[in-house]
Amino acid sequence: MEQSAADSILQFISTLRNERRLSANTLKAYARDLVQLGMFCDAQNITQWQALKVHDVRRFMSERHRKGLGARSLQRELSACRTFFDFLIKNDGLPYNPALGIRAPKAAKALPHILDVDQMAALLDAAPKDNLDVRDVAMWEIMYSSGLRVSEITGLNLFDIDLAAHSILVVSGKGNKSRLLPLGKKAIAAIQRWLTVRGQLLKEGENALFVGKTGRRLSTRNVQLRLERWRKKIGIQGRLTPHMLRHSFASHMLESSQDLRAVQELLGHANISTTQVYTHLDFQHLAAVYDQAHPRAKQKKRRS
Q1: Given the residues 174, 186, 193, 285, the one annotated as active site
Q2: Catalytic residue status for 203
Q3: CATH of 3-91, one of 2.30.42.10, 1.10.150.130, 2.60.40.10, 3.40.640.10
Q4: Percent over 70 (pLDDT), the chain
Q5: Is the pTM of this model over 0.85?
């Protein structure tokens, strides 16, 4: 494509960064998707965005599908195209949005994997053996107590915690939105234990609540590796990720409270439909209890 078309992508990404304040990962996804569209246009000898027609976008989607792209990825790429073309309509005189009437295939909703209450207790009640273990338990407690993402855990600063008010301020959440969350007494106790030893690792000038051996802020990869180490240590089978602690928090909260709106606020979801996936988990649990307990649901054992 011509340089002016490539420059439009850069301007679009800059607008998303400065005006909508999207996260770095989201910006990279937008840029990656639009680069794919630009490569398709090059192959079709389309040099300007104004020359792109509806059938071209449909062909682009079909080609991406043939290359093995899944339904969710196709939906994301199509959404990126629509948003980009709306930007061009507003700023570069594009006459219409050629992606507006095109639909990507629907993706089946995958239910999140969670730990049950006993597995969470095994993780949180395991005795720490050193200062790093004390730190880890505090991280797991916060993630399960308040439903934080791993990026939010690593972004926490010491002054974001108010132990007297039993609260935590998350200011590095998805989309740079902040939310004030309650802290449970178990989480507070774990944080207090960590704060008694944090100074032994801390480098001068570091504000991060959680630091590593170097005394500096932990990376998300550090947290993932430490959780995998704990999984092996306590004998939890299968995969265990930091996000599963957030999923477990949401599922257990919804199961106990039945308050979908409250769980939405705690998780920081902009759309309640994102939170509703946990109602399916709750129903699965209820269905399993029903099958085991109801006289007309239980299967009779055959007599030998």
Answers
A1: 174
A2: no
A3: 1.10.150.130
A4: 84
A5: no
